[in-house]
Amino acid sequence: NAGVTQTPKFRVLKTGQSMTLLCAQDMNHEYMYWYRQDPGMGLRLIHYSVGEGTTAKGEVPDGYNVSRLKKQNFLLGLESAAPSQTSVYFCASRGGPGNTIYFGEGSWLTVV
Amino acid sequence: AQSVTQLDSQVPVFEEAPVELRCNYSSSVSVYLFWYVQYPNQGLQLLLKYLSGSTLVESINGFEAEFNKSQTSFHLRKPSVHISDTAEYFCAVTSPSGGSYIPTFGRGTSLIVHP
Description:
The complex is a heterodimer of chains A (112) and B (115).
Chain A: E1 4-7, E2 10-13, E3 19-25, E4 31-38, E5 42-51, E6 54-57, E7 64-67, E8 73-78, E9 87-95, E10 100-103, E11 107-111
Parallel strand pairs in A: 2-11
Antiparallel strand pairs in A: 1-3, 3-8, 4-5, 4-9, 5-6, 7-8, 9-10, 9-11
Chain B: E1 3-6, E2 10-14, E3 19-21, E4 23-26, E5 32-38, E6 44-50, E7 56-58, E8 64-68, E9 73-78, E10 87-94, E11 104-105, E12 109-114
Parallel strand pairs in B: 2-12
Antiparallel strand pairs in B: 1-4, 3-9, 5-6, 5-10, 7-8, 8-9, 10-11, 10-12
């Protein structure tokens, strides 16, 4: 049981480049989330999805896009990366007893 | 709307001393409560959770938390900490059904255990 898997784990981008982070979960959860974590800021919600084909904006959505074409996958895209998007990105899914939240291991992104 | 406040951003403690990490929440509906731990350069792992029933919940590595509805708190405690407990700890709340789809996290408490 893999749980929540994120790829890639590390990436360095140049300003203006685009990239996609992939999140996959094998728990058949409806809800999925993308967070970014920065020092002193805790976890901030970027976008979330309550089911296949649906997405919604979170607290800090600017500069990001998402898609949930399949229930098990939640993609986070950066169309034109900026240094302010240097961060650690965590994907999570929610479900099961108590609506427990399960996290991926994180993706470390540096934009130079 | 729901919110979570972790009252301490950093808690330094000596090894084998007891520790308490404080968490208060606010919500207009009933809640489920969680504590997550994040070791350096790793993801968040579930430490323990309160869903219903006994208000005292325990983890496998000696942590415990008590749900106090009247004080809207879910403080995390350990009677004797180890160096290996050094990590960031996050308190979180979700609703049982419907309502907010968004789990709410506190800003985290950094537990630093000194030898």
